[in-house]
Structure formats: structure tokens, C-alpha cells
Amino acid sequence: MADPTPDGRRRRGADTRRALVRAAVDVVTAHGFDRLTLRQVADRAGASAASATYHFGTLDALLEAVAVELEHDAVARLGELTRRARSGDLTLLDACTAYLVDLLGPRRPVFLTMLELRVRVARGHGGTATGPAAAEPDAALVDLIQDHVGNRERARELFAGVFGLSALAVFAPVPPGEPELRARMARLLAGAGLTTHDDHAVPQETPHETQEDRIP
Questions:
Q1: Got the DSSP string for the chain?
Q2: pLDDT tens for residues 53-76?
Q3: Residues 207 and 159 in one domain
């Protein structure tokens, strides 16, 4: 029997909201934005269309919640890897490479969705971000990087390099493999003054094919 108390209703409301956001992530990742509706998301979440309207009101509000959810997922994944790097279980290069391999492999559809959401917001079709994320959308990711580089400006620069590498690689006709990503990541870390502890991080280039040729 459902808890009839105010706390019980709040918990059920929070559970429904989370289910709607996760359903929206699934729908957008699989099918894009073109035919997205609150009713479609509600059906996938096993909720009523009225509940979707109650919690979000508009598609823009729902998509803003999706963007926040995807950012939280990215922070959790990178946070796990950086904790392992700090504990000595992985090198920093190992952690960054694993993150990129996951982002451009199993999580490629999710990453493309994140990029599409950014484009929608930039064009004025995705709502207006509010709160701390509005001032610095990737603040949590930059925070994790700052733990290693010790300076926020350097952390932003390194994040920009990693984001640029990821955005270019995700559109490459032939997805870069782990050795390629590791080599590029090693150069970014070295440029930020961080040691990679990997003598084999940057393979030798041949006269006929450079790393620049392989990743646009």
C-alpha cells in the first residue's frame, strides 16, 4: 500500500520525476529530438501524461533536466576513474583513456545527445539553463580535473582540449582506437605539465600516416 503521508507523496513524486528523466534520456538517445513528446516519455516511464506535464510543463524543461542528468552521469564516471587514479589503481593517463574509450564507444549515442542538447541551447531551442550550471556548464568536470592540475585555468584548458578531441573523434568516419586516443591524451596531459608514466603513450609516426591524418 502506498504511503499516504506527505513524505510518502514527495518520495513517489521524486521517483516519478527520475523515471521520466531516464525515459527521456532513453528516447532521445535512441530516436533523437524530432518526435519527442511528453506523452511518449510518460508512456516509456509507465507514468501518466498528466504527471509529465505536472513535473516539467514543457519539452524544453524536460530537456534541461535531461542535460543535467547526462552531466551527472559523466561526472560520476569520471569521478570514479579519477578516484582510482588518486589511489594508484590507475595512472592518470589510464583513467583519461578509459573515459574516452567509453565515451566514444558504448556511450557514443549518449555523447552525441549531449552535443545535440548544447546545439539546441545555443540556438535558443532547448530552454534556458539556470543555477550554477548556467555560469559554467562543465564546472563539475573541471573541478575533478583541477584536483590534478591544481589550477582552475589550466583545468579549463585541459578540459577544452579533451572535449575538443572527443567532439572531433565522435564524428570521424573511422572511430579512433584505444592506442590512438591514448597517444592524443598523453600529449594533452604533457601539455598541461602532467606526467603520464607511460613510455609507450605516443607511438612513432610514419612518413605516410600521422596522428593528425588519423583523427580530423
A1: ----SHHHHHHHHHHHHHHHHHHHHHHHHHH-STT--HHHHHHHHT--HHHHHHHHSSHHHHHHHHHHHHHHHHHHHHHHHHHHHHHTSS-HHHHHHHHHHHHHTTTHHHHHHHHHHHHHHHTT-S----SHHHH-TTHHHHHHHHHHHS-HHHHHHHHHHHHHHHHHHHT-SS---HHHHHHHHHHHHHHTT-----TTSSPPPPSS--HHHH--
A2: 999 999 889 988 998 898 889 889
A3: yes
